[in-house]
Amino acid sequence: MTTIQLTDVVKDIKGKRIIDHVSLEMESGKVVGLKGVNGSGKTMLMRLICGLIVPTSGSITINGKRLGKDITFPESVGILIENPAFLDAYSGFENLKLLASIKNRIGAEKIREVIALVGLDPNDKKKYRKYSLGMKQRLGIAAAVMEEPDIVVLDEPTNALDSNGVEMFKKVLQREKERGALVIISCHDLSTLQELSDEIYLMESGALRPYSGEE
Questions:
Q1: How far apart are the C-alpha atoms of 143 and 198, rounded to whole Å?
Q2: Which has the closest alpha carbon to 207: 14, 3, 58, 50?
Q3: How far apart are the first and last CA of the chain?
């Protein structure tokens, strides 16, 4: 069981309040959706949960370990925040193989499997710089889930995906949920968010509250 506990989290940047006293508890096996307009604080909240930035005040604990104190980053997390970024001169497979070599948890066969899962060709030698935006997004999703992390954080994962890509993503997300991951997603398409999420929270001016379905 993976649990994330945010307690009265505040983030100020240059005197401006970006995250405003957010408290939230999440657990594995669920998809938690974040809804809000651009600039509402969704991406910043995801960065905080991933340990990429630290709160001004309040605390974030993962399985009882406090981020920034007991651990620097979540011990098992896959991330796609904003635009995916890979090495232009490498193929998709080469990029994922390089990433996988950091922890050395998966081999070439698993990498090929996840590339195929997101609808790309594992044997394609095309360099990343020649990928379309949709292909780049698919590779970013593959990178986030390939090591089967306990926590998966996906910021606008359907960006640049066509209808087939959105259907692919839904299948990937269902697979992540079924294996027991805690998935946190933001999505501009409310119907997709409602279809995929067990819980939806509305973010407005850095504050978070349960989404009633009426906004």
A1: 24
A2: 58
A3: 32
Coil, helix or strand at residue 92: helix
pLDDT one-digit tens code per residue, 166-199: 999 999 999 999 999 999 999 878 888 999 999 9
- Cβ proximity of 100 and 106 under 8 Å: yes
Give tens-digit pLDDT for 116-158.
999 999 999 999 999 999 999 999 999 999 999 999 999 999 9
- Does residue 137 sit in helix, strand or coil? helix
Q: How far apart are CA 11 and CA 109, in angstroms?
A: 41
- Nearest 5°: CA angle at 85, between 102 and 112? 55
pTM (predicted TM-score): 0.95
Whole-angstrom distance, CA of residue 210 vs CA of residue 215: 11
Task: For residue 67, list its beta bridge partners.
Answer: 71
Tokens for 205, please give them: 């001016």
Cβ–Cβ < 8 Å for 138, 106: no
